[in-house]
């Protein structure tokens, strides 16, 4: 990895800001999978490059594609008997320094995690085996005890449940909400900025988008954000950014993508990004054009479109279509796949049986002969960034702008400790 010295960022900044963003498609797999339902990306084998994970429903498989560092991907199957695998996530659950995998199986009604032995040999552990029509697995330390808890939505049981990890990967279920008709998605973060983890969810049949406020002792109070017809996917990120987390929603039946602006006191104002994106399913948000605001990515299962919406900095959005014939485009993700400091896109198309990544040609802090000796490979982080308390620490984005370490959107950042740039990090969520 080769990077220019930090002071040179300013020189390149104007070119970065006016650059046209183009994406080049690279197919990862279109021959061995059937109905990819959900994709995710992380450095699974801890070799300083980004690998790809997918849940493939009609081949009942959870697989990962190993990146050789040059974006040549080799497939490895974790399980091929996970009946209608429909969501996947990854994090170090123990933590023991390697990345484990979490999944749901819609037909098997399973929520499971796959333990990585450090050499990417995986052992299956079932968390719940009667979670009817399981959807949308997610993992995070909900109760602040330094281990990873798990959550998922049950479409048929109409509930959202989180499973408390006792530190030895024994899980106790806690039902967050019953009667949540057609629970479809779940996500978690500190939505109200009070240092505990809250939960965001949507119910397809109930036409509901809500969040559950954690009182700090894992007693959750429901707050309805909005009535939304057929909400399939919910996500949260600071869209402006103004220091609080906003909510992004995909409403399937009417092709709506909306974001709900948080006023800082968790009162939400709706804004429509697109109302004609037929069968919108998967959504994600990241700064794709490196202009210090958050753009939106979406896949439309009915229109077969993969698009991104450019934020002009005042939350007016312009659609850019990447592919208008991507059959059953239902899942998207974004991160720096090729380690060139800009954000690429990952997509899964159900009927096309296709997983692809879309290379962003925006040039970031890169290049040839100016490598500071103390910067090595990028570190992938999820959740909060922990910095040493006895040092003077600053965080900069790739334009050289200092950012608040407590309010970082997904993207690429550099850490300065006591006046020296020491680390590159990629924040994925």
Structure description:
The structure is a single chain. The protein is mainly β. The chain has one helix and 33 strands. The strands form eight sheets. The protein has a five-stranded mixed β-sheet, with no helix packed on it.
Report how far apart the termini are: 23 Å
Strand order, sheet with most strands: 29-33-32-30-31
Nearest-angstrom radius of gyration? 20 Å
Mean pLDDT: 89
Structural class: mainly beta
Fraction in beta strands: over 45%
**What is the makeup of the main sheet?**
5 strands, mixed
Q: How many helices in DSSP terms?
A: 1
Q: Tally the beta strands.
A: 33
> Which runs of at least 5 residues are low in confidence (pLDDT < 50)?
1-19, 364-376
Shape: globular
Q: Which percent bin holds the helix content?
A: under 10%
How would you sum up this structure in a few lines?
The chain contains 1 helix and 33 strands.
Mind sketching the topology for me?
Elements: H1 9-18, E1 23-29, E2 36-42, E3 51-56, E4 61-67, E5 73-79, E6 85-91, E7 100-105, E8 110-116, E9 122-128, E10 134-140, E11 149-154, E12 159-165, E13 171-177, E14 183-189, E15 198-203, E16 208-214, E17 220-227, E18 231-237, E19 246-251, E20 256-262, E21 268-274, E22 280-286, E23 295-300, E24 305-311, E25 317-323, E26 329-335, E27 344-349, E28 354-360, E29 379-381, E30 393-397, E31 402-403, E32 411-417, E33 420-427
């Amino acid at each position: 990895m080769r990077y220019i010295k930090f002071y040179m960022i300013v020189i390149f900044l104007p070119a970065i800001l006016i650059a046209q963003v183009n994406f080049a498609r690279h197919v990862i797999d279109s021959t061995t999978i059937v109905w990819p339902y959900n994709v995710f990306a992380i450095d699974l084998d801890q070799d300083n490059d980004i690998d790809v994970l997918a849940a493939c429903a009609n081949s009942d498989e959870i697989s990962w594609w190993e990146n050789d560092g040059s974006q040549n991907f080799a497939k490895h199957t974790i399980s091929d008997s996970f009946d209608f695998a429909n969501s996947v996530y990854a994090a170090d659950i123990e933590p023991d320094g390697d990345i484990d995998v979490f999944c749901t199986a819609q037909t098997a009604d399973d929520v499971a995690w796959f333990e990585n032995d450090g050499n990417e040999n995986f052992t299956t552990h079932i968390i719940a085996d009667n979670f009817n029509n399981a959807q949308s697995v997610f993992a995070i330390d909900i109760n602040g005890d330094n281990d990873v808890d798990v959550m998922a939505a049950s479409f048929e049981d109409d509930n959202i449940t989180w499973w408390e990890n006792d530190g030895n990967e024994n899980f106790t279920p806690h039902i967050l909400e019953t009667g949540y008709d057609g629970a479809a998605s779940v996500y978690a973060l500190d939505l109200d900025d009070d240092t505990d983890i809250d939960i965001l969810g949507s119910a397809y049949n109930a036409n509901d988008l809500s969040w559950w406020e954690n009182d700090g002792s894992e007693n959750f109070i429901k707050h309805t954000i909005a009535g939304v017809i057929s909400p399939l996917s919910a996500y949260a990120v600071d869209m402006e950014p103004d220091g609080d987390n906003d909510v992004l929603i995909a409403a399937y039946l009417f092709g709506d993508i909306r974001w709900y602006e948080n006023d800082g006191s968790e009162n939400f104002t709706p804004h429509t990004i697109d109302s004609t994106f037929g069968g919108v399913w998967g959504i994600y948000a990241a700064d794709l054009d490196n202009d210090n605001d958050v753009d939106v990515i979406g896949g439309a299962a009915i229109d077969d479109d993969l698009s991104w919406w450019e934020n002009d900095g005042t939350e007016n959005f312009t659609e850019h279509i990447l592919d208008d014939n991507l059959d059953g485009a239902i899942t998207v993700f974004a991160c720096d796949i090729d380690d060139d400091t800009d954000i690429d896109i990952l997509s899964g198309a159900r009927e096309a049986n296709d997983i692809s990544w879309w290379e962003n040609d925006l040039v970031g802090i890169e290049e040839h002969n100016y490598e500071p000796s103390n910067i090595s490979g990028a570190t992938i982080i999820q959740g909060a960034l922990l910095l040493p308390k006895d040092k003077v620490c600053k965080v900069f984005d790739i334009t050289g702008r200092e950012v608040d370490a407590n309010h970082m959107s997904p993207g690429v950042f550099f850490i300065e400790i006591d006046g020296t740039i020491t680390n590159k990090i990629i924040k994925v969520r």
